[in-house]
């Protein structure tokens, strides 16, 4: 799942958008810890821990948790961009390739 999946339904279905943001946010935070090679804290302490080493990520994660739906989605997109910056950002769509059939 990605933020582009959520972009398709933001204006159409608010409840589903909230659900998808709730599903994607922990994944993005987990990816951030893995990319930075940090030990992840218990879920209830993650935002406190993030504040000690990446206040930008903590602020974006907090904004993605509450507020107007469009603001939450924008914060999630910004957090995703922030997290993936060390890897060169999100993989462009044109880099994706279709599966090739294996020859016998």
Record the SSE blueprint.
Elements: H1 3-7, H2 14-35, H3 46-53, H4 55-65, H5 69-84
Helix pairs in contact: 2-4, 2-5, 3-4, 4-5
Concise account of the structure shown:
The chain is built from five helices and no strands.
Structural description of this entry:
This protein has 104 residues and is an all-alpha fold. The chain has one domain (3-88). It has helices at 3-7, 14-35, 46-53, 55-65, 69-84. α2 (14-35) packs antiparallel against α4, α3 packs antiparallel against α4 (55-65) and α4 runs antiparallel to α5. The mean pLDDT is 82.
Inertia-based shape = globular
- Average of pLDDT: 82
Low-confidence stretches: none
| Rg estimate, integer Å | 16 Å
Protein structure class: mainly alpha
Q: Roughly what fraction of the amino acids lie in strands?
A: under 5%
- Largest sheet features: none
Query: What count of helical segments does DSSP give?
Result: 5
Helix fraction by DSSP (H/I, runs of at least 4): 55-70%
Distance between the termini: 33 Å
What's the order of the H and E elements?
A: HHHHH
Tally the structural domains. Answer: 1
DSSP, total strands: 0
């Amino acid at each position: 799942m990605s933020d582009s999946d959520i972009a398709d339904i933001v204006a159409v279905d608010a409840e589903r958008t909230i659900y998808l943001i709730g599903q994607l946010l922990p994944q993005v935070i987990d990816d951030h810890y893995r990319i930075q090679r940090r030990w992840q804290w218990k879920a209830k302490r993650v935002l406190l821990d993030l504040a000690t080493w990446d206040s930008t990520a903590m602020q974006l994660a907090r904004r993605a948790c509450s507020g107007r739906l469009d603001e939450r989605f924008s914060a999630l997109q910004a957090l995703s961009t922030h997290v993936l910056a060390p890897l060169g950002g999100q993989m462009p769509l044109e880099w994706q390739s279709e599966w090739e059939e294996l020859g016998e």
